[in-house]
Amino acid sequence: MALPGLPPPRPIPLKDRASLVFVERAQLDVADGAFVAVNSDGTRTHIPVGGIACLMLEPGARISHAAVALAARAGTLVTWVGEGGVRLYSAGQPGGARADRLLWQARIALDEAARLRVVRRMYQMRFGEAAPSRRSIDQLRGIEGVRVRETYALLARQHGVEWARRAYDPEDWEAGDVPNRCLSAATACLHGLTEAAVLAAGYAPAIGFLHTGKPLSFVYDIADIWKLDTVVPEAFRIAGLHAKGRLEMAPDRAVRLACRDAFRRTGLLAKIIPGIEEVLEAGELPRPDPPPEALAPAFPAAQSGDGGHRG
From residue 280, how far is each of 112, 131, 134, 238, 277 by CA, in Å? Predict the structure, then answer.
């Protein structure tokens, strides 16, 4: 409720929010109109849900109907994930109030030439150089895979980490070695942040271009643009500290804190939605006009970038 003489409160644009919060072993509820986490001993921790992009609920967390409703009104994505965030079970959907952007995304994905142009632009944004000419999407996928593996090996050597290959079991978090667990936790943080941005902007996480056939294919596409510059170095740095016995907390928790700081330091959240637009514009297909009865953007300011977001 607005105070007398003051304008009514407005949702915080996604680009101005904190990145994400992990919650485990707590009951999320609403008390006195505020979002709170209630611990087993009855203590409460207030969570400024309207200023957060994504809540990631781990095993042991419960959430009330009132809390889900408040998160939806505030435009905060709620996801239910496995331990360490390595597996996604389900997610709410604060975006998607308009279909024009989703239709544009789908039209590009169904046009093979446009899809290839999008994949080439993602390659350029990711590696800072043009993609090799006359390569198919499968060939570009293979080239990217080689470069990623080489980057993993290089970072492992820099931080004194024993590294064999990328290997983890989503069904058994503890089965992986520490470097792989660090990398999984870091990637989960980035995917949560990216999914919140994709949904808030009004796009479909499942309609991918390089990645296909997964519920989060487009999230993987977009997250990979910044993955090697943000969360991957932090994962190997934390794994290196653990190997040297210089870590004072569990590695996965240290990775989450490091990723949170990296997101703030790099201003990543403010880059993702404009990055999505740049990627899709490379398809060179016109945007469909929204129908006259389409819902107006929740954030009308052009620079906010949150046109598909529910206010």
Answer: 13, 16, 20, 34, 5
Confidence of residue 131 (pLDDT cuts 50, 70, 90): very high
Residues 6+ positions from 161 with CB-CB distance below 8 Å: 155, 179, 236, 239, 240, 243
What CATH number labels 14-91? 3.100.10.20
CATH of 100-288, one of 1.20.120.920, 3.40.50.970, 1.10.150.130, 2.60.120.10: 1.20.120.920
Residue 5's pLDDT is what?
56
**pLDDT digit string (tens) for 132-148?**
999 999 999 999 999 99
Residue 114, number of CB atoms within 10 A of its CB: 18
pTM confidence score: 0.78
Dihedrals phi, psi of 90, to nearest 5 degrees: -160, 165
pLDDT tens-digit readout, 40-84: 888 899 998 888 888 889 888 999 999 998 888 888 888 888 776
Q: Are 77 and 195 in contact (CB under 8 A)?
A: yes
E strands along the chain, which residues? 18-23, 27-31, 34-38, 44-46, 52-57, 62-63, 77-81, 88-91
